[in-house]
Amino acid sequence: MSCREGEPCAEGRKRLRALLVLGVMLVGFIVLSAFSFLGSRGQATPDEFRFGEYQAADGKRVFQAYNCMGCHTMVGNGSYFAPDLTDEYEKAGPAWLAAFLPSAGGWPTEGALKVQLADPAIAAEAGVSSLEEYYAKYPGARARIERRGGGTTLMPNLPLTRDEIGELIAYLEYTSALNTEGWPPEVRTGGLERRLSLARRAHPVLSAGALPAAGPAEAAAPVTVADNSPGSGVTDLIQQGEELSRNYACLSCHAVDASRRVGPGWGGLYGSTVPLADGTAVTADEAYLAESILHPNVHIAEGYPAGIMPAYENQLDEGEVAAIVAYIRSLEQP
Amino acid sequence: MQIQYDTQRLSLRFFMLMLVLFLAQVAFGLILALQHADPAFLAGTLNFNVVRAEHLNLGLLWIIAGFMGAILFVGPLLSRRELAAPWLIKLLFWAFLLTVAWNFLSQGLAAQGVAGWWAGQPWFQEGLEYLEAGRIADLVVLVGFSILAYVVIRTFPPVREWNEIHWGLGIGVIALTAIWVFGLFYVPRLDLQEYFRWFVVHYWVEGVWEVIHISLVGFLLVLLFRVDVKSVGFAVFWGVVLVWLSGLIGNAHHYFWIGTPEFWQFWGSLFSALEPLPLVFCFWHVYLDAHQNSKPLENAPAFYFILGSVVLEQVGAGILGFSMTFALTNVWSHGTWVTPSHAHLALFGTFGMLGLGAAYYAVPTIRKLGNFDQRLGKLGFWLVFASILGIAFAFAIGGTMQIYVTRTLGLDWFGGDVFPMMTLYKLLVPLFGLVFLLGAGIIAFDLMTMGARAQSTAAFAELRQATGWGGRLSGFEAGIWLMGMWLFGGIITLGLLAFNLPRVRVEGDPTLPYLLAWVGYSGLLAVTLLFVWRFLASLEGRVATSRAVPWGVPEGAVAA
Fold first, then answer.
1. Which chain B residue shows the shortest CA-CA distance from A198?
2. pLDDT of B91-105, one tens digit each?
3. Is the peptide bond before A305 cis (omega within 30 degrees of 0)?
4. pTM for the full model?
5. Using one digit for the tens of pLDDT, what is the confidence trace for B527-545?
6. B242 CA to chain A: closest CA distance, Å?
7. Which of B38, B269, B413, B427 to mutate: most A Cβ within 10 Å?
8. A50, exposed or middle or buried, with CB in 10 Å at 0-12, 13-18, 19+?
């Protein structure tokens, strides 16, 4: 009935003509599509990317298994609830991601980043040999640490395993390398300070709650980890331990009460009996706690995944470890 | 008014299921809106991504339930015989119910990162936007669509006797099954995965649902106004042809930034700019069918929702879709709240309202209620119609600010930089959402208990003046309204384009895009609201003269 009343119809012919035009367009569409995925185009593919032993192709499965797209966007598609992840690797780099992903509820500090960079494999993947080089290569990492370091994020901690974290980093490296034809558009409004002041000018009332260029981390605690001169008394020691815990973002994983965050809660941990994954049990004394900080994967507490906590062996000296242990000891179970 | 074929009764269970899923979807939407306002709300217990997966999946499922109900209801009428294999339809219903329940439960696994990988496929849940269902649910759905297609084709008369509605629905149910297959494979490359994901997400909607939509709207208008199938057939034929000619390559507006080559920006922009054409066509036909013969509006709620469906298709899919379909505007709107503004109007508006309209036609007919109380249905319509416009407005303006903060200023950390700027609009969404929930509740209550409650004739008591606001809506006036909508749509498009200006992009002054967005969106949505009000008032005006005797009331059905 492709005609008005009274007109001659010729339905069959009209349908055929419409189908012919459609067929021509379909051929065009298929040709364009085939061209889109030709190897000669040089588009990045997941099999070209790995992070250590981990493959980007496996990372894509992890990305889907946790439905990351349900909050974030990837190449702009997804949920607009959390940042776009396409270029996250390029911005923040592998060490920052390795520090962030295990305990996504907390923003990594410089200490947490340094611990990751101390891993030669990660430093090699990042292609840098020092923190300064890292910041220069991945400026997003510095901005994240300066503005947010030590604060809490809006992202829940996910039960990611060590393998899954490595695979995700490989996947994000792949998506960063993807040629997205100029999206997201290049930012041309100048440096961070200028952009923040523009945002405040455009939204003076609403931006009252927004963070300044240097965030609470700087106000609450010094970002640099270097000079923590040992105190004299026990109280000083505990205070030093607390500060170290903050600087290294230990509290992103360990709650100060007995609750489980990513790792075991510290409240009441000292002196308790800790069942281990190998079926034995140990008492959480000074020696055990110090050993767990320096070589966390020697004894894995039962029910916790291995390989998530980085080793602090070359990061903390004896006194600093003692301070953290003293801090843990001071956290009685309520 | 009552059904002519017994098997039409089978549609009732699908409509009831549709209402339950609709309410659940709205409830999940409200949770999402609250989580946007307070990201800590239920975090860790019911994470945002799980809630969103439920919201999207239930949204698709209730629309499909509505489609199935509508198709099963009109199938026998189109074929002048009972549905083939009603036992298959009963099986389909239970399979659908089980799939919905399974899919609902399996989405929660995302919080633990369990996808159920086996043989290279995610069997429990897939974690892809709109295609969150795992392979198990996917395959059952495929079987379900095949059953639907089989029953519809078997019920229809031989192909040589098909009219355009048969063609539309026939092609529609087959393509519904065929396109679904593209979502059944895990694709390791991100660009290729997105390429195929949009086959299912957007060809389904633009190519297949749209065809089913045009055909169903056409036939429901035939039923409502008792017009000739022939005149609707004309609209259906050209509607379907235009949908496919523009949509096939127009869908490439999803291939701008996913890693596919730049040439798609040309082809996608060009063809998808033509995509509103069939919608204008459909819009115009609703006007013609409703106004040409001046027949009285007998089932007001059914027509309200059909009009809402066609108008929101025009505004949400046509105009808002158009505004963000060019590479130069899409580069800004892509990945922001501007997108859900379009999606909510287009998806709920076009397809959701069609299902509700079909239910409002079918339920009283199946339950033999000649003279049902239409006030609740009208009230429900106005509540959901006005509040979905409000939700779209909040998304659009919030999204415009999001573009400025995240893209122009490059401040992309949502918690600290972006959310504080969007606070007002983040609060508006749940506010309008509450109104929407109320409307949805009224509609569900009305349709579910229709016939069980005491019937009323009050709907016919009010007589309206057939002049002024309630006077006849001329074609000229309708055209002016439509042009008004497009005028504001043009302003919205310019607002997005304005983000390219050096004044915004380099100097960082958002005044122009903000102003254009404010004027454009509020103008467009106000004109939409007023137009629907005017259109319906002009139809109500007719009731006064033609409702001396309630239509089609079977003797004894209305107790004195």
1. B508
2. 999 999 999 999 999
3. no
4. 0.92
5. 999 999 999 988 877 654 4
6. 9
7. B413
8. buried
